[in-house]
Design goal:
Shape: globular
Strand order of the largest sheet: 1-2-13-10-15-8-5
Helix content: 10-25%
Number of helices: 4
Mean pLDDT: 92
Oligomer: single chain
Radius of gyration: 17 Å
Structural class: alpha+beta
Order of helices and strands: HEEHEEEEEHEEEEEEHEE
Number of strands: 15
Low-confidence stretches: 1-9
Largest sheet: 7 strands, antiparallel
């Protein structure tokens, strides 16, 4: 992939936060997508994505997972997590736009994306690592957020003396998780009683 001068200049002007965390490589671009563009993208995702309500078994009972989800990507790039298998829906124009934009900084090509819709503060994501076999060793995950800000928390899987890491994923932000992050760290989006706006998060991946 080639980068013209204007694109490279705009990338150089991005705000960047690199976290000093052992056994992980975390890079946050808090304003990767400008606010006005992010607003338009949010509305397109909200209305155009084929949302689904999956269920999981909890103590023998089936319950709704606390968010809506969707899986888009290249043909044949299916994904299984928590005993839920998702077959890819073909890319849409807005997903291609987001994918192409983040590949400018990631400098790799993603072939799939998991999309989560957090409708309110009761919607959440439990502690987990993105370490499924089809993602390969040391996967690169690009997490893009639109809509209301939500707290993103991480904890080390083995060294319990390390403090948890927490920061907000804001409207238009891009978080790159690279290196050994998924091997050594878990992350979550906790529930909150505070009023929050709806949020759509996209985690771009490479299915092997």
């Amino acid at each position: 992939m080639k980068y013209d001068t204007d694109t490279q200049l705009s990338l150089n002007l991005l705000q960047v936060t690199k976290f000093s965390v052992p056994d992980a490589e975390l890079i946050l671009y808090p304003n990767y997508f400008p606010e006005e563009e992010g607003d338009l993208i949010f509305q397109k995702l909200l209305t155009e994505i084929n949302w689904r309500q999956d269920k999981i078994k909890f103590y023998g009972k089936e319950i709704d997972i606390p968010r809506l989800t969707a899986w888009y990507g290249d043909s044949g790039k299916s994904y299984t997590y928590s005993n839920i298998t998702m077959n890819p829906i073909p890319w849409t124009p807005v997903l291609f736009l987001i994918k192409n934009r983040i590949e400018e900084v990631a400098k790799i090509s993603f072939n799939s994306v998991l999309i989560n819709f957090y409708r309110h503060g009761k919607d959440s994501m439990a502690w987990h690592s993105d370490d499924e076999p089809e993602l390969g060793k040391n996967p690169i995950i690009a997490s893009v957020s639109f809509g209301g800000a939500r707290k993103f928390r991480l904890r080390h899987r083995f060294n319990k003396t390390l403090e948890k890491v927490a920061f907000n994923l804001t409207h238009g932000s891009l978080l790159m998780m690279k290196g050994k992050t998924q091997e050594y760290w878990q992350h979550q989006i906790p529930k909150t009683a505070k009023p929050v706006m709806p949020r759509i998060n996209l985690t771009f991946r490479i299915i092997q």
